[in-house]
Amino acid sequence: MSLFVLKKVFLNISNFFGIRNNSQGKFGVTILLFLVASITANAEKISDFGKDIKPILQNYCYDCHGLKKTKGKVDLTNYNTWSDLEKNPELIEKLIDVLDKNEMPPEENKQPSNDQLKLVSLGLDKAFKNATAARSESVVPVRLRRMNRFEYGNVVRDLFDLESWVYSINDRIIRNHNNYFRPETGKMPDVARVGNRIMGLQQMLENRLLGVQAFPKDPPAENGFNNRGDHLSMTPTLMKAFLELSRSVLNADNFDKNCRVWNDLFQDPSQKPNQSKFGSINVDKSVETKSTGLTISAWIRPTKTTNEWQTIVRREDSWRRQLLSIGESDGTWGLWIGAGIGGKYVEFGAPFKASILGDGEWHHVAGTYDGKEINLYVDGELIGNKPIIGELYNQSRQPMSIGSYKNGSYERESFHGDLNDIRVFRSGLSQAQLKELKNGIKEVALATMVGSWRTEVEEEPQLSEPVEKIAHERIEKFLHRAFRSPPDEKTLSLYTKYFDKSYDESGDFTASMKSIVSGAMASPRFIMVHDEASEASSNFDSYSLASRLSFFLWCSIPDEE
Questions:
Q1: What is the C-alpha to C-alpha distance for residues 370 and 391, in angstroms, rounded to an integer?
Q2: Are 294 and 434 in a shared domain?
Q3: In terms of residue numbers, what domain contains 23?
Q4: Are the C-beta atoms of 496 and 471 separated by less than 8 Å?
Q5: How many domains would you assign to the chain?
Q6: pLDDT tens-digit readout, 404-456
Q7: Which among 6, 103, 162, 240 could disulfide-bond with 98, CB atoms 3.0 to 4.6 Å apart, if both were Cys?
Q8: Surface-to-core class of residue 313, CB atoms within 10 Å of its CB (0-12 exposed, 13-18 middle, 19+ buried)
Q9: What pLDDT, on the 0 to 100 scale, is given for residue 461?
């Protein structure tokens, strides 16, 4: 019986004593520890292969595996010592497996005794440990290759946490049209709408970096795969293309707006963080299970009141979308609310004078649904309602956009003016509660509030350390992620010194940092998929495994975890 089987026995023993009282449990644990110690001691004493093991193999194994036949392409007659066998750990693992499952020798053949099986199993266990411990490499080295353009786009998008795609390519054949992947719901979608129009309108509408073109498509290998190392070579022309591509990514007109790590990487630490005019709201997970309705409230001060819709807050999700807006529709100018109710999208608007909302003063607006009717309020007063009974779809936890929403590369229905103190509740608030919010009371229905957003008055940053030191820390963190392992001191010094020189000459922190990042993105350590060890990678195997898994599973770099 091998150590693998004995582990199961020990587990059963511990479970048995675990249901007894404490004294019996302690007695059982003592027996268990004694057995473990005894077996471990015996396992350490490896048997003599020629004297103890080879005779057993001759009697029960050689006929099928070496002398008369070579079943399974396994010839055991080639192994005369443990050292010979330890050169083939894969074979040892197979032998352990078939013995544990009693698959060998076959039932109809002559069988060894239990003592003989135990002797062979213990010897194989020890040999397997020796064989794997002696290996200088834990995994087979990956063949050096560069990223294909599908991987490059994914890597750049993840590296900068872009809200957009890097470029449009026909390598991404399947596209999601209804945001069907929602793991927060805990269930599979009823319907998944996807499309595969390689050069269709979808590519023109999707949000992407402006002016960025992918490098030429790589021809697939004969088996159809586009990540074959022997096909993804590097040429001087491609090297130049990668350098130009890295610059075009960072200098794209909409890169700054789409880069969600901007303040942590490119923004001058001596200046205020770069903020888009409005942000987004991430709702709390309790919205999935504890919702009884919906309330969206906001303070608004529009500077224009045209007939075009202006988004206050909106989550785009097909018929499940939720929104609060002002504007005109079907001849009615006023306040509008939309939500998924009873399996369909329901939109309701109440008329209100544009001249009042556009008078330059702050106004409180709100839309509610309590499972029975929709209500719309301005400054705490009801301006319209609509009876409707149905289940509110409130499972989506995608961010709710504030002040506009994106349709492809373009911002839609932008709000003209100021917004503040936007709140989302998982219940339909009463008119009395909304009047409290209008009167400036903050502690209203906090138990059911699932998300909020407000503008903060930001002070000028006070630096506690030199700008150069902050930049060096940012560069080291960036290189760690971009190169999929910590940069060694020589490499890090090369990049930090270049930044210092550029920053001293120009005084432009952002431009200097973009030069560093652009250079790193043209480095072979970024472009090439590799597992070359560096002096800085003490746990190199972990980085190598993470990188190989991430490129295999989702064609991108590992996340920060």
A1: 10
A2: yes
A3: 3-44
A4: yes
A5: 5
A6: 887 655 677 889 889 999 999 989 999 999 999 999 998 999 999 988 988 86
A7: 103
A8: buried
A9: 74
